[in-house]
Write a structure and sequence with these properties.
It is a single chain. The protein is α+β, with helices and mostly antiparallel strands. It has two domains: 159 residues, Zn peptidases (Aminopeptidase), CATH 3.40.630; 51 residues, no CATH class. 20% of the residues lie in helices and 25% in strands. It contains four helices and eleven strands; from the N terminus they run ααβββββαβαβββββ. The protein has a five-stranded mixed beta sheet with strand order 1-2-6-3-7, with helices on both faces. A two-stranded antiparallel sheet has the order 4-5. Helix 1 crosses helix 3.
């Protein structure tokens, strides 16, 4: 029996999936929630087997890469001991806001994605839809990296994706890139020396002036902002 969005969110929040803990129980609950004929469920475990990425698909079994992925992460940051007026792992409502660890980032999106997926009839889909939920995003996107390195058949996943990170309900077109600013090594407080050199990971907005992505485009080239 499907749960309401709120009830499902409450179930997800109740799992303490803080990044230093295993997420196996949460992943299994979600897999069982959407499992039915026509749904394909794959588990992509971490190297030590204590965590897992979850890939759920429905629709045509082809490699056209048409369709849509709904992507999110299952882990949350530590709740801490201060600042809470309620149990962080018990969903509560304050006015028009749901309060609970991970309710926004990002179990709210997981609940919505799971229920929308559960409402679909797999036999009527003309393109594929996939749920891709990863572990350890909060500590360095470790689950996503593991999935990218070990997933054996990427052609089975749609090329288009929606990542449900909180953006105040604004659509943000972004992707990961690596920036390599030039200059000399020095402390930033030494004003008379050449500009400091740094190497860092950045998120570059598509179309932002002066940025270039090192990520390949579908045609094999890198995308440069214009």
């Amino acid at each position: 029996m499907p749960l309401t969005d709120e009830a499902l969110l409450a179930r997800l929040v109740a799992f303490d999936s803080t990044s230093h803990r295993s997420n196996l129980a949460l992943a299994e609950f979600m897999a069982e929630y959407v499992d039915r004929p026509g749904v394909r469920i794959a588990r992509n475990p971490s190297a030590d087997g204590t965590k897992v990425n979850l890939v759920v698909t429905a629709g045509p079994d082809d490699r056209s890469r048409r369709g849509l992925m709904l992507c999110g992460h299952m882990d949350v940051v530590p709740a801490g001991d201060t600042g809470w007026h309620s149990d962080p792992f018990t969903l509560s409502r304050v006015g028009g806001t749901f309060v609970g660890r991970g309710a926004c980032d990002m179990k709210g999106f997981l609940a919505l994605a799971l229920n929308r997926f559960a409402a679909l009839d797999p036999d009527r889909l003309v393109t594929r839809i996939a749920l891709v939920f990863t572990y350890d995003e909060e500590v360095g996107t470790l689950g996503a990296r593991r999935l990218a390195e070990t997933w054996t058949d990427p052609e089975l996943l749609p090329r288009s994706a929606v990542v449900g990170e909180p953006t105040s309900l604004a659509v943000v077109r972004m992707h990961r890139a690596r920036a390599h600013p030039g200059g000399a090594d020095r402390h930033t407080g030494a004003q008379r020396l050449p500009a400091p050199r740094a190497q860092c990971d950045r998120t570059c907005r598509a179309g932002a002036p002066g940025t270039r992505s090192t990520e390949p485009r579908p045609d094999g080239r890198t995308a440069a902002a214009r």
